[in-house]
Design a protein that fits this description.
The complex is a heterodimer of chains A (519) and B (260). Chain A has 519 residues and is of the alpha/beta class. Chain A is built from 22 helices and ten strands. Chain A folds into three domains: 233 residues, Orthogonal Bundle (MetI-like fold); 158 residues, Periplasmic binding protein-like II (D-Maltodextrin-Binding Protein, domain 2, 3-Layer(aba) Sandwich); 92 residues, 3-Layer(aba) Sandwich (D-Maltodextrin-Binding Protein, domain 2), CATH 3.40.190.120. A five-stranded mixed beta sheet of chain A has the order 7-6-8-5-9. The two termini of chain A are 41 Å apart. Chain B has 260 residues and is an alpha/beta fold. Chain B has a domain of 175 residues: 3-Layer(aba) Sandwich (Rossmann fold). Chain B has eleven helices and ten strands. The longest helix of chain B has 20 residues. The chains are: A alpha/beta (519), B alpha/beta (260). Chains A and B meet through helix 6 and helix 7 of A and helix 2 and helix 4 of B. Bound molecules: adenosine-5'-triphosphate and magnesium ion. Adenosine-5'-triphosphate binds next to strand 2 and helix 1 of chain B. Chain A: Keywords: Membrane, Transmembrane, Transmembrane helix, Transport.
């Protein structure tokens, strides 16, 4: 019974109006846009084989792009578009969140609508189109009174498929800043909160089912010419939209937005920052689960106001530097470079979250491995696992070059599973994070890096350009600077990785403040 | 001087690619006349009918309807003014019997009450059962009932000219006979001009005032059955022999007093 009594169900439920509302809005807007574009295209090309083939080919290509990649692609694309409109027309728009998500999802919805629309219209018996002409219909009347009604069942099947796809894929719009039911899933996966993962999956499945059934009701109403059924279906959809608009209408959007990337430490830190701002009387919300390439651009564009990044990450990815400097020097250089973009590097939190090569302590002792240089001699018989980005990062190239590392196999893994995998011997070495609490939990050891191939990764607090002169904000945050040491952060991360009610980011953030607040 | 013909073809030609589906046809259909067009499959009967209401555009020659060149009439208006019964029925499967029948008046903008009254009148006219059939979908009708609906639809906007493409094909002989007789009396009662395509020479002789014979796109002969029987064309004579042979066989096989 404890599973059902878990207080995290309650917490999940408390987010539902926000997550579901945003999910419904972005899905239905995308579906509506997809229909507005696709249906006329299907009608226009029904008697034109060449453009029809091109259109279907394009839509099919879009469909083969994985949903997550399509969503991610729209962010830089819109960013570019926004900078162009700013230059030419002096107006800019947010390339973050709703817009890229809606456009990508709309594109995603087009194939089933187009394909079924065209199939439905072309499948009509030519004798009936002839008859429509014969009784005196114009082309337009023939389309509206005969062809569309006859193609309706096939067209509606396409629309229903599109609706289910869009609602399912919308869960992937969380990393580009669109709140959705995916927030449950991303956060749940990162913090091992299976209650959230389940809740997110069920909620989006139920939503998809409900919309599908309502569309089915409209369809059967139109087909059987039952105003009642069509009306009920339409009212159902309208009610869904209205219900999701109401709770968010009154909410002000003028507060500070704290960004967080997609891993547990970031969820905890963003909750901590949000709490600090609220304690100082500032309204603040956390926007969690943002992709690591999206989040910096979002800060630069002012879509989020502050977040925690790591010095080495920006050094390599934003400044494109491959040389390595001591911790303090690197942060100082970074601060100057970021200032050119009007981004404020407020300061370090005190701990480092660097990549480190990690293996079980017992094994390291048995083999006499203390440093990465020692490991190099054994690497050819060992396998290594890293997160999804590690092997394409400059640090990995630098490590391989400095130590001549050659592993027998390399695998990509969800970060939270890596530690258990290396502890159980499923892989020999992992590229873990120095601040991860699981290092202590599984009795692992992080190897020294005598050649300093891995740059320092100080956790640093960044403020958006529009917050440059915001002294209230800075005052609210300054009590955190330099206060979080590596041991405290490891413990916080360990707590967050637990699978119980006390492991939610909010609870851990309060614990963390309790530890560092008085320092 | 006789009144001007309801439909007049002058040297009308229609080709599909190299194929001359209608080849230099000249034919007058008098006001109030019932003309049957007969001929083999692919001889151009349907094409000849369709160029009259511009479902197909003729390539050459002139067609006039009630004295007006059809090229000078808006094709949509032309079709609303001529009733057309399709070879395959052509009823709209998603519309009820009543909506199928009332479609042309609706396109012409008639008020709903007027359409409803007209539909009831037509259901009666083609001898369907108002209570049982009015609101059914075509799929729930028998073949003969569907063809009655097709005829009713063609008559709904009170056309003076009706074109029928094998309207009673694919029916059992009894129904076919009854429907033919019913239509013939409607034709007379409403003062219609009717052009009917049929494969059945007996039907043509029994229903029509005059018969036009098509072959390979050409109009081979036209005239009353007795005029045709004096034709010098072997094909025409062969066509006329068929019903006569049938009658002789029937007379030989059935006792003269019969069931009647
Ligand atoms: N749209 C078209 N495109 C090409 N050829 C056509 C077209 N319509 C008719 N034809 C051809 O024109 C010729 C005459 O066709 P039509 O339909 O007028 O014949 P029909 O006498 O009505 O035959 P049936 O008794 O079988 O209905 C046929 O050879 C037919 O294949
Ligand atoms: Mg024909």
């Amino acid at each position: 019974m404890s599973f059902l009594n878990d207080p995290r169900w309650g917490e999940a439920l408390s987010h539902l109006p926000d997550y579901l509302g945003n999910h419904v809005r972005v899905s239905l807007a995308a579906l509506a846009l997809g229909l507005i574009v696709s249906l006329p295209l299907a009608i226009l090309t029904r008697n034109r084989p060449a453009p029809r083939a091109i259109l279907l080919a394009l839509a099919s290509i879009v469909q083969t792009v994985p949903g997550l990649a399509l969503l991610a692609l729209f962010y830089p694309l819109l960013l570019l578009a926004a900078s162009v409109t700013l230059k030419w027309f002096g107006v800019s728009f947010s390339a973050f969140g709703f817009l890229p998500a809606m456009l990508a999802l709309a594109l995603y919805s087009m194939l089933p609508v187009l394909r079924n629309g065209i199939t439905g219209l072309n499948g009509i018996d030519p004798a009936l189109i002839e008859a429509a002409k014969g009784v005196g219909m114009t082309e337009r009347q023939s389309l509206v009174m005969v062809e569309l009604p006859l193609a309706l069942p096939v067209m509606m099947a396409g629309i229903r498929t599109a609706a289910v796809w869009v609602i399912g894929t919308a869960t992937l719009s969380t990393p580009i800043g669109q709140t959705s039911l995916g927030n449950y899933i991303f956060a749940g996966l990162q913090t091992q909160n299976w209650v959230f993962v389940l809740f997110g999956c069920f909620a989006s499945a139920l939503l998809a089912l409900a919309v599908d059934q309502l569309l089915g009701l409209i369809e059967s109403g139109l087909r059987n010419r039952s105003r009642l059924r069509a009306g009920l279906g339409a009212i159902g959809i309208a009610a869904l939209v209205a219900a999701t608009l109401v709770p968010t209408m009154g909410r002000s959007s003028s507060g500070y937005v704290v960004g967080a990337k997609t891993f547990a430490e970031q969820y905890v830190l963003s909750a901590l920052l949000r709490d600090r701002l609220q304690a100082a009387g500032l309204s603040a919300t956390a926007r969690s689960g943002l992709g690591s390439s999206v989040i910096f651009e979002a800060l630069k564009a002012g879509d989020i106001d502050l977040y925690v990044d790591y010095s080495g990450t920006l050094w390599a990815n934003q400044l494109h530097r491959t040389d390595i400097k001591p911790r303090a020097e690197l942060v100082a250089d970074l601060k100057m470079a970021l200032a050119k973009d009007d981004i404020t590097l407020l300061g370090e939190l005190g701990f480092e979250n660097a990549y480190a090569l990690v293996l079980p302590k017992k094994r390291a002792d048995a083999l006499g491995i203390r440093t990465i240089a020692d490991l190099a001699a054994h690497a050819s018989t060992m396998s290594i696992a890293g997160d999804y980005e590690f092997f394409s990062r400059p640090e990995w190239a630098a490590l391989q070059k400095a130590y001549g590392l050659q592993f027998s196999a390399q695998r990509q893994m969800q970060p939270d599973f890596m530690y258990a995998a290396v502890a159980s011997g499923e892989v020999d070495v992992i590229a873990g994070y120095t601040s991860d609490g699981l290092i202590a939990k599984y009795e692992l050891v992080a190897l020294d890096d005598p050649k300093q191939a891995i740059p320092p990764y100080d956790a640093i607090l960044l403020l958006a350009p529009k917050r440059t002169g915001d002294e209230r904000l800075k005052a609210a945050l300054s009590p955190l600077l330099g206060k979080i040491d590596i041991a405290t952060m490891r413990e916080a991360n360990l707590r967050a990785s637990g699978n119980d009610a006390n492991s939610s980011p909010d609870v851990v953030a309060k614990w963390l403040w309790g530890k560092v607040g008085g320092r | 001087m006789p009144s001007k013909p309801a439909i007049s073809y002058r040297n009308v030609t229609k080709s599909f690619g190299a194929l001359r589906a209608v080849d230099d046809v000249s034919l007058d259909i008098a006001d109030g006349e019932f003309l049957a067009i007969v001929g083999g499959s692919g001889s151009g009967k349907t094409t000849l009918l369709r160029v009259a209401n511009r479902l197909i555009e003729a390539d050459g020659g002139t067609i006039t309807v009630e004295g007006e060149d059809v090229q000078n009439i808006d094709p949509v208006a032309l079709r609303r003014r001529i009733g057309y019964v399709f070879q395959s029925g052509g009823l709209f499967p998603h519309l009820s019997v009543a909506d199928n029948i009332g479609i042309t008046p609706k396109l012409l903008g008639a008020p709903a009450t007027e359409i409803a009254a007209r539909v009831d009148e037509l259901i009666e006219l083609v001898q369907l059962d108002r209570a049982a059939h009015r609101d059914r979908l075509p799929e729930a009708l028998s073949g003969g009932q569907r063809q009655r609906v097709g005829v009713a639809r063609a008559l709904a906007a009170k056309p003076r000219i009706v074109l029928m493409d094998e309207p009673f094909g694919a029916l059992d002989p009894l129904t076919r006979d009854a429907l033919g007789d019913d239509y013939r009396s409607l034709h007379r009662r409403l003062g219609l001009t009717t052009v009917m395509i049929t494969h059945d020479m007996t039907e043509a002789i029994l229903l029509a005032d005059r018969i036009a014979v098509m072959r390979g796109g050409k109009l081979l002969a036209q005239g009353t059955p007795s005029e045709l029987s004096t034709s010098s064309d072997a094909y025409v004579l062969e066509l006329l022999r068929t019903p006569r042979r049938q009658v002789e066989r029937l007379n030989a096989l059935l006792p003269q007093s019969g069931a009647a």
